[in-house]
């Protein structure tokens, strides 16, 4: 199981999308001409933040060979020969599984080159189901 660091901050706003915010309190710039700033990247609290993060993630996963499931848009998979890698995404966490562990490690490394990740260790629970290994 892995966690994406600052996931919503990875979302890119469209060039033609104008979003302005007021400066935070106690901001250093006190010039009245600069009280409002235009955003170029997504931030937490922005209504579009979740969608922008998902779009950024989807494009990055497609770049490294993943396809989006037609049944569930948070499931991504990749075929490498006769092997398969499956990703399940939930907001900023993901679980990876596949037919070969070295292939899973390779894809984890590829994803890690695109986004900063934290390894949460082996998955123990998923959607209220206990996960055990034998």
- What is the count of DSSP helices, taking H or I runs of 4+ residues? 2
The count of β-strands is: 10
Strand order, largest beta sheet: 4-5-6-7-1-8
Report mean pLDDT, rounded to a whole number.
Answer: 82
Distance between the termini: 18 Å
Largest sheet: 6 strands, antiparallel
Q: How many whole angstroms does the radius of gyration measure?
A: 18 Å
Broad structural category: alpha+beta
Low-confidence stretches: none
Principal-axes shape call: elongated
- Note the run of SSEs as H and E: EEEHEEEEHEEE
Q: How many domain modules?
A: 1
Helix content: 10-25%
DSSP strand content: 25-35%
Protein model, in words:
The protein has one domain. Strand 5 (75-80) and strand 6 form a beta hairpin. It is 22% helix and 28% strand. The mean pLDDT is 82. The chain is of the alpha+beta class and 134 residues long. Strands 4-5-6-7-1-8 form a 6-stranded antiparallel beta sheet, with helices on one face. It has a two-stranded antiparallel sheet with strand order 2-3. Strands 9-10 form a two-stranded antiparallel sheet. The protein has helices at residues 49-63, 101-114; strands spanning 2-4, 20-22, 36-38, 67-68, 75-80, 83-90, 93-98, 117-119, 125-126, 129-130. It contains 2 helices and 10 strands; from the N terminus they run E-E-E-H-E-E-E-E-H-E-E-E.
Short description:
By secondary structure, this protein is of the alpha+beta class. The chain has helices spanning 49-63, 101-114, and strands at 2-4, 20-22, 36-38, 67-68, 75-80, 83-90, 93-98, 117-119, 125-126, 129-130.
């Amino acid at each position: 199981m892995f966690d994406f660091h600052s996931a919503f901050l990875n979302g890119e706003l469209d060039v033609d999308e104008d979003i302005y915010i007021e400066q935070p309190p106690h901001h250093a710039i006190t010039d009245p001409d600069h009280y409002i700033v235009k955003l170029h990247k997504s931030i937490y609290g922005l209504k579009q933040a979740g969608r922008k993060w998902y779009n950024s993630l989807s494009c990055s996963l497609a770049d490294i060979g993943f396809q989006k499931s037609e049944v569930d848009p948070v499931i991504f998979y990749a075929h490498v020969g006769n092997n398969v890698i499956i990703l399940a995404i939930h907001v900023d966490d993901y679980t990876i599984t596949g037919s070969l562990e070295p292939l899973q490690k390779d894809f984890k490394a590829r994803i890690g080159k695109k986004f900063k990740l934290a390894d949460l260790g082996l998955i123990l629970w998923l959607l209220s189901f206990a996960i055990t290994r034998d």
